[in-house]
Design brief:
homodimer; alpha/beta; FAD/NAD(P)-binding domain; Enolase-like, domain 1; 3 domains; five-stranded parallel β-sheet; 11 helices; 26 strands; globular
Chain lengths: 457, 457
């Protein structure tokens, strides 16, 4: 066991070298050029786009390297950030301000002291505890390493049929990728609709879209087991059927990587994500947390939630770095904006769902409209369906969901802005949004939706 | 002279049957099913998309009829709105509450009384008072009729070279249309840059883009005359040269159609546009005005401005109709959002220009960033350049300008929303905008621009 100790200084230790951790490290470096910064990262990679993995698997991105924003070498050489890859932190001793580190390459352990600590360990893909789960051909998608494994498997094993467990973002993006690689794709989805982050009336439209693309979709159906031969997957069983498959993708959601914090005194909250304030400080002095391992404050519900999103990871990393460097930036939270493409379809959402509003006893109205992404007479005007949810008594926007084709999804950004700043349907109607025939109907679809829904207020 | 008089009732007369007039008529009809509504429209058409004319000329829209949202017959038969096309109002007598109408088809005149009057006469393309201006081959683009004339001219006369006077929205959209029809295109632009609605540092980028497309662009150059042979245009002269052309498009801006209001007592303002309050009422009781013939309140400068935009025409028409029907909707004004496509380039703008801020003695900072429309590694990630202007002391956004390729322009909508609701650069950075690799970098380009500019605050 090595025990690195600096006599003096103000040493910053960061656990996790992806979006949140490296955003923070870079920010601290910009503000404090001479500070000692050590980053422990359990993989070989830093600062890569996890969201880009499906596009590497589909081969529209040619190499895994393209997904890497900055390499460990670049951080070390150009930014003087001491990145130690293949180092996993297994324990945090907040009383003595040190972390226990497992050096994977050398199979050794040591304690590293810190003056300030940032935990940015991200999330991990959920894996069901079933026999055969470690068989060849079964993959979770959460790290670049896992993405590379999948790509290699397709390249060398040439699987014909894949089953994807779960119809969330990763499930749908992986469906696109595998369709593009020529596989037959089946999705097994536990609930009634894919995309549980949308209301059922919109989710059903996505289910229809997915079937249009040639995906076999089984909803209301749960994985019950893996079928393997010689430790290699040959199919899955659900509560309703057996499906042959030479490849299985687990898209069953993710959870924060916080198991190693047990006994540290660091307070966890929703889904065992780390509780933080707006400066990304934990309950323990000199310990910050950021990214997918933390709770996120939901601006609309005014309650903490758990979401794992690259945007939030980058923002909270920046705020944590800012706070560590002594600045006073605050992270105001998020409204739950997310977007997803599957082949020609685009899906976007922001704000609260009907079921969340029901649970909060908020009286609301909802409306759905169909429009076009361009002027109706302009070539390639694509379908767009917009659902809005507003508070009944005030008309204040509470949520928005969009399904459509090219040009549809990014319109969610106006609704996300409206949500954050508590705009009403009338405010949305009054917005001076851009119009020319190649870009929009004269009333943007989000405004058409607001005009439709305001009649119910 | 006919003198129509109804004994009783509450007769609404509307002058102008395009976006503003027919939005108002439709709204009144929805609220007051039995009310008498007469619309006088000088052309043969109602409710057409003037913004769509360049796309009809380029032939990507096949027929002029596709640009018509609702025909006069449909308004008459389905909505019981008495639309009289080929009727031009030449005088308004606000004391006796009647308008003088010229029946173009029958070459007769009559007076029509009103209980309430809405003026929605739109704008007219500026035409320089020069010899030869009425020669064949010289066209302004403002009405559907003018668009049809241009299309017919290209079809039958097969012109080879066109000169466009003016590098504003219409000039650029017509350049695209004529390039698509195979013409050689020259633009003569009076000022240093095309698109005077952008700052010079962004305008120069559009000038470069236009040249890339094969357009010959002469800036700092003014039209001095038309060259004609047998009343047919063969070229134009500028203060610097003579250019051969068998077709000339006038894109020199437009002005409100308000000349016929002289002596009516109706107050005019900026650029002779009609002064209105937030309910679209003029200074004369029972007289409303809406659309391109009115002033528009600029929410950012808090001053009236003149802009001719389909979005504002539709909105103010709706508010006028609402007010006429006794409701209390208000039009809060606009922030000057506009968007334009020329071949593969997209241009968008909102808010105030540097020169406007200089004139108002507001201290501001500006910054320009280059980014991509998608994740850097995603195929077809296109260039996007974003300029932001913010108030120096508060960081409040004052303006935004975007130039880029596919997927760039519509991002202006977040900035337009931010402007309307007085958001700061920090507010923009904090927005929970949507991200997935096919749609955006993890920091949306408008946020990257805000992060860049906030350093100067």
């Amino acid at each position: 066991m090595t025990h690195n100790k600096k006599d003096k200084g103000n040493k910053l230790v960061i656990i996790g070298g992806d979006a949140a951790g490296m955003s923070a490290a870079s920010k601290v470096r910009r503000e404090q050029p001479d500070r000692e910064i050590i980053v422990f990262e359990q993989s070989r990679y830093t600062s890569y786009s996890a969201c880009g993995i499906p596009y590497f698997i589909s081969e529209i991105v040619k190499t895994a390297e393209e997904l890497i924003v900055r390499s460990p070498e670049e951080f070390r050489n150009k930014y003087n950030i001491n990145v130690k890859t293949l180092h996993r932190v297994t324990n945090v001793d907040t009383k003595n301000k040190k972390v226990k580190v497992f050096d994977i390459g050398n199979d050794t352990e040591f304690w590293e002291e810190y003056d300030q600590l940032l935990i940015a360990t991200g999330g991990k893909a959920f894996c069901p505890d079933m026999e055969g789960k470690d068989a060849e051909g079964i993959f979770g998608i959460s790290t670049l390493k896992s993405g590379i494994k999948v790509e290699n498997f397709i390249e060398t094993e040439k699987p014909k049929a894949a089953v994807i467990i779960g119809g969330g973002y990763i499930g749908l993006e992986m469906a696109e990728a595998l369709l593009m690689r020529g596989l037959k794709v089946t999705i097994i989805n536990r609930s009634e609709q894919v995309m549980a982050t949308l209301d059922p009336d919109m989710g059903i439209k996505i289910s229809d879209a997915i079937k249009n693309l040639g995906v076999t979709l089984y909803c209301n159906e749960s994985l019950t087991g893996f079928k393997t031969v010689n430790n290699r997957v040959v199919g899955v069983t659900s509560d309703k059927r057996t499906i042959t498959a030479d490849m299985v993708i687990l898209g069953m959601g993710s959870s924060p990587n916080t198991d190693f914090l047990k006994g540290s005194g660091i307070q966890l909250g929703v889904a065992n994500a780390i509780k933080v304030n707006a400066q990304m400080q934990t309950n323990i002095p000199d310990v910050w947390a950021a990214g997918d391992c933390t709770e996120t404050f939901n601006i609309v519900s005014q309650k903490p939630m758990y979401i794992a999103l690259g945007t939030v990871a980058n923002k909270t990393g920046l705020v944590a770095g800012s706070s560590i460097a002594g600045e006073e930036t605050l992270f105001p939270g998020a409204v739950g904006t997310a977007v997803c493409k599957i082949c020609r379809y685009e899906v976007a959402r922001t704000g609260l769902l009907e079921k969340e509003l029901d649970a909060m006893n908020i009286e609301y109205v909802t409306g759905i409209i169909d429009s076009k992404t361009r002027a109706h007479y302009y070539p390639n005007a694509k379908d767009i369906t917009v659902k809005l949810i507003a508070e009944k008594k005030s008309g204040r926007l509470l949520g928005g969901q969009i399904i459509g084709e090219e040009g549809a999804a990014k319109r969610i950004d106006v609704l996300a802005t409206a949500l954050t700043h508590r705009l009403t349907l009338q405010n949305i109607i009054d917005l001076d949004l851009s119009y020319a025939p190649p870009f929009s109907p004269v009333w943007d679809p989000v405004q058409t939706a607001a005009r439709h829904l305001i009649k119910k207020i």
